[in-house]
Amino acid sequence: MLFESNIIQFHVIVALSMELISDHLGITQSADFFRADNPEGVEARNEVVALAFEDMISWMQEGGQVGIFDATNSNKKRRNMLMKLAEGRCKLIFLETICNDVNIIERNVRLKIQQSPDYAEEPDFEAGLQDFKNRLANYEKAIEEGSYIKMIDMVSGHGGQIQVNNISGYLPGRIVFFLVNTHLTPRPILLTRHGESQDNVRGRIGGDTALSEAGELYRKKLANFVGKRLKSERAASIWTSTLQRTILTASPIVGFPKIQWRALDEINAGVCDGMTYEEIKKNMPEEYESRKKDKLRYRYPRGESYLDVIQRLEPVIIELERQRAPVVVISHQAVLRALYAYFADRPLNEIPHIEVPLHTIIEIQMGVTGVQEKRYKLMD
Ligand SMILES: O=P(O)(O)OC[C@H]1O[C@@](CO)(OP(=O)(O)O)[C@@H](O)[C@@H]1O
């Protein structure tokens, strides 16, 4: 996953999902459907591939920059077909993940049967398991030409290998950098704002005040929650901004290292820092209106915009992706909106309006089958 931002846009198209195929072609699938020697299956799959590819291209024509065409694409014919479809329209990089660890494959296949919509209708777990294993056996060895990135045994967390062929340019380079740092080890990320601050009580934005009475109570409840939730975790860490309201909120949490990030500081409100929204409306009506019109792009005079915040969060996101142990991030409203949007895959325009209330923990569970979310409201 990457941010859908002004620099990089990201789009996921699940080309060979059972749902999409069934919707378009009205066929029920099994492992046979995926066999290379089943002409009906091959034809139906190619039809869906072309449809999904065209969908991605039309999105790119509207300004999208990076699309993920998610399918196995593991044989010569399919790759040639994709290269033809892409010719003169977009640059193709084949990304292949190879896993030789039978235990990981077994674990992931079991999770897939439990959680994937492909098997939602399959009442017999063992039958689903066999079907998926047959499906895997039908994937052929991919060709080695053109631009490709191969990630070999990188999921297990014990080294692995990355092979890069014919990759050049800024964006492809960033993609390699991102992939080197990412993995699928299941772990939670807990996001929370600091406890209520004295400025929150007065309705003043920015600043660096200590906690209110309610904020003091929240930090105790949070420490209690984290202590219980991460009881069996040895390597978790607590990340805060450099502002005292987050550092104070983290202080009662014991047993885990604490790391301060300037990149987690709240949006810089520039000349408006310390003012209430009412004061801005009254004294700087033009600024107030411009922000209201386009909160995402509006930049406070001598301060930041949401787009600026999103940009400065890139190293935090890469580090979060890299971690194998749980992380508790204690930060601020604007920053958490952006972080949450990244994990929850929310569109750019929605970011400044996402609800991130005080005294609430958002738990993001990272794992093999994507991201799951839970919210815990510890206080009103
Ligand atoms: O973008 P908006 O909705 O103004 O929200 C950001 C604001 O939230 C506040 C609170 O009003 O953040 P926080 O208390 O989480 O540090 C302000 O400091 C900050 O300017």
TrEMBL record:
<dbReference type="InterPro" id="IPR013079">
    <property type="entry name" value="6Phosfructo_kin"/>
</dbReference>
<keyword id="KW-0547">Nucleotide-binding</keyword>
<dbReference type="GO" id="GO:0006000">
    <property type="term" value="P:fructose metabolic process"/>
</dbReference>
<feature type="binding site">
    <location>
        <position position="245"/>
    </location>
    <ligand>
        <name>substrate</name>
    </ligand>
</feature>
<keyword id="KW-0067">ATP-binding</keyword>
<dbReference type="InterPro" id="IPR029033">
    <property type="entry name" value="His_PPase_superfam"/>
</dbReference>
<dbReference type="InterPro" id="IPR027417">
    <property type="entry name" value="P-loop_NTPase"/>
</dbReference>
<protein>
    <recommendedName>
        <fullName>6-phosphofructo-2-kinase domain-containing protein</fullName>
    </recommendedName>
</protein>
<dbReference type="Pfam" id="PF00300">
    <property type="entry name" value="His_Phos_1"/>
</dbReference>
<feature type="domain" description="6-phosphofructo-2-kinase">
    <location>
        <begin position="27"/>
        <end position="186"/>
    </location>
</feature>
<dbReference type="GO" id="GO:0006003">
    <property type="term" value="P:fructose 2,6-bisphosphate metabolic process"/>
</dbReference>
<dbReference type="GO" id="GO:0005524">
    <property type="term" value="F:ATP binding"/>
</dbReference>
<dbReference type="GO" id="GO:0004331">
    <property type="term" value="F:fructose-2,6-bisphosphate 2-phosphatase activity"/>
</dbReference>
<feature type="binding site">
    <location>
        <begin position="193"/>
        <end position="200"/>
    </location>
    <ligand>
        <name>substrate</name>
    </ligand>
</feature>
<dbReference type="GO" id="GO:0005829">
    <property type="term" value="C:cytosol"/>
</dbReference>
<dbReference type="Pfam" id="PF01591">
    <property type="entry name" value="6PF2K"/>
</dbReference>
<dbReference type="InterPro" id="IPR003094">
    <property type="entry name" value="6Pfruct_kin"/>
</dbReference>
<dbReference type="InterPro" id="IPR013078">
    <property type="entry name" value="His_Pase_superF_clade-1"/>
</dbReference>
<dbReference type="InterPro" id="IPR001345">
    <property type="entry name" value="PG/BPGM_mutase_AS"/>
</dbReference>
<dbReference type="GO" id="GO:0003873">
    <property type="term" value="F:6-phosphofructo-2-kinase activity"/>
</dbReference>
